[in-house]
């Protein structure tokens, strides 16, 4: 059996200690078999265990190996397409349900951290930074939209005010969301895994699902064993491969790149982000950054369509960091890594059921930290027979990429080039 370690990231280097989790050997029976020990799988498992289900998770590598343990660590509300877009797509009734759920993921994270005493450096406050007056206008309408759904922890910031929270001269204003924030994402996943095990759930690491035997009593086959279950939840997202071909056809793995500086020291770190908020800009291909608990700057951005690993991540991201913070020109980069997220053509998550007993959620399209925690709750509700919220997501339309799997990468890259050109020209 190949032992897949974590990629060499800042998160892996600063992870909390974890117990060994052996691979599955032989045959086990359970109520629910979950494929994937990232946020979607762990959140589903916790809600199910809290409601009396017997749960086993099979994970191809290690807990949080994929996007859950490699992302920018930002708690960002809503979805990759906002509620107004959803409303135009599916109408007011379904949009109302989805709109009220748009801010639930962040609350679930905070509840989990408090309930299970998860040590993951949780900090409150997230900033959306505008580079143009058009982006500022979008934030103004976004604030009105979110407040329609009862989300009131928002403050619009003019140029003077945003300078008080981020030492970057490029921004003309922004919006502060105090229910946003940031976490050490791998330690959040590890803490949730420990919570799963404390409730009797079992996690098998280094145990890829190689085949799903569909039917009245589905079976997940692994290299050295099998799991017989009443239900299966497919939660592999960008790392699912072709295990479920009908899901692979409507999504595309994409890579994003992240760098982490050497420790900056308290004084320099405080000049960059005095209140320790996280920041993302409003460009189509956005940059995002925040401080760590040991006062490093984590800076991410860029998208590689098709999820190839670029040769030199630092060469791609460091110039973006220096454009925001030229004062860091002599600072060393200690870590650079890439991770995959799953993109859908609509940029909305794909949720549904295959047959009577295989459930799935995938395609967060870059908004995964909060959405996956909500998805776990919604999937668990559906397995308990409460399907209204599940059906609201399942009713969103989904489309295959134009040109199929062969042409989805070039088509998406052309679209991204067009939108990033608009950003640069201020359209």
TrEMBL record:
Single GO cellular component term: cytoplasm
InterPro entries: FAD-dep_OxRdtase, FAD/NAD-bd_sf
The protein, known as: FAD-binding oxidoreductase
Keywords of the record: Oxidoreductase
Species of the source: Pseudomonas juntendi
Superkingdom, taxonomy of origin: Bacteria
Gene Ontology MF annotations: oxidoreductase activity
Gene3D superfamilies, sorted: D-Amino Acid Oxidase, subunit A, domain 2 (3.30.9.10), FAD/NAD(P)-binding domain (3.50.50.60)
Domain FAD dependent oxidoreductase: 31-381
């Amino acid at each position: 059996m190949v032992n897949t370690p974590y990629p060499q990231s800042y998160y892996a280097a600063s992870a909390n200690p974890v117990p060994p989790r052996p691979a599955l050997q032989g045959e086990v029976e359970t109520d629910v078999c979950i494929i994937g020990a990232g946020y979607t799988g762990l959140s589903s498992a916790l809600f199910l265990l809290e409601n009396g289900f017997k749960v086993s998770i099979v994970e191809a590598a290690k807990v949080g190996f994929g996007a859950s343990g490699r992302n920018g660590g930002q708690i960002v509300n809503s979805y990759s397409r906002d509620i107004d877009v959803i409303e135009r797509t599916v109408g007011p009734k379904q949009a109302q349900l989805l709109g009220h759920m748009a801010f639930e993921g962040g609350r679930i994270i905070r509840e989990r951290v408090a309930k299970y005493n998860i040590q993951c450096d949780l900090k409150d406050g997230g900033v959306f930074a505008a580079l143009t007056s058009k982006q500022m206008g979008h934030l103004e309408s976004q604030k009105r939209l979110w407040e329609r759904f009862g989300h009131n922890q928002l403050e619009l910031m003019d140029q003077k005010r945003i300078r008080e929270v981020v030492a970057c001269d490029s921004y003309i204003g922004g919006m502060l969301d105090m229910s946003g924030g940031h976490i050490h994402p791998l330690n959040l996943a590890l803490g949730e895994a420990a919570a799963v095990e404390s409730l009797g759930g079992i996690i098998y690491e280094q145990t890829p699902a190689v085949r799903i035997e569909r039917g009245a009593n589905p079976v997940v086959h692994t290299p050295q064993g099998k799991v017989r279950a009443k239900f299966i939840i497919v939660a592999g997202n960008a790392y699912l491969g072709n295990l479920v071909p009908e899901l692979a056809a409507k999504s595309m793995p994409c890579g994003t790149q992240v760098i982490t500086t050497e420790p900056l020291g308290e004084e320099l770190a405080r000049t960059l982000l005095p209140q320790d908020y996280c920041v993302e800009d409003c460009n189509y291909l956005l940059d995002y950054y925040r401080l760590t608990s040991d006062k490093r700057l984590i800076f991410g951005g860029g998208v590689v369509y098709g999820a190839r690993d670029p040769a030199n991540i630092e060469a791609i991201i460091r110039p973006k960091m220096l454009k925001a913070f030229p004062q860091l020109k002599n600072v060393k980069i200690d870590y650079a890594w890439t991770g995959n997220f799953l993109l859908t053509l609509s940029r909305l998550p794909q949720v549904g059921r295959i047959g009577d007993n295989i459930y799935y959620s995938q395609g967060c399209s870059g908004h995964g930290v909060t959405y996956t925690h909500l998805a776990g709750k919604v999937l668990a509700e559906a397995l308990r027979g409460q399907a209204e919220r599940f059906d609201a997501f399942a009713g969103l339309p989904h489309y295959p990429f134009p040109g199929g799997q062969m042409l989805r990468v070039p088509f998406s890259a052309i679209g991204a080039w067009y939108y990033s050109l608009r950003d640069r020209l201020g359209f």
